[in-house]
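Entry for the shared binder. Reason: the reviewer on the internal report wants the predicted structure included alongside the sequence.
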Amino acid sequence: MLVRNCAGGVVFCNDKVLLLKNEKGEWVFPKGVIRNGDLANEVALKRVFAEAGVKAEIVSTAGHTSYEFFSITRQIPVCNKIIWFIMKSPSEDYKINKEENFIDGGFFHIDEALKMVTYSQDKSLLHLSFNRLKELA
């Protein structure tokens, strides 16, 4: 099994959170693979900007998730281990990067986002991250 370390961001602007819709129709958070000794926090910030055009700042770590899938192109199972960061953006401005295979996205009110997010572990991540953000405020 190929294990990949990844980093991503749960990006808030006030009581809204950034979600992206991928080519499979899944609502997810921006994330990417950590390569060549890059720092997880730098990768997370770069992926948020590359995938959604959002400039954000990290306010805290959010936790870890992982998932497994079978890579059709590699013909092997893959495990993505993701470290998540809670981020704040001063603006709801975004620009979905279609070249990164995203078809929709934006900032959504927390209640709406919790219904939209595809995966249960991402729903938990969102809930915990929003609570943590309120504690920090």
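Summary line for the report: The two ends are 41 Å apart (CA to CA).
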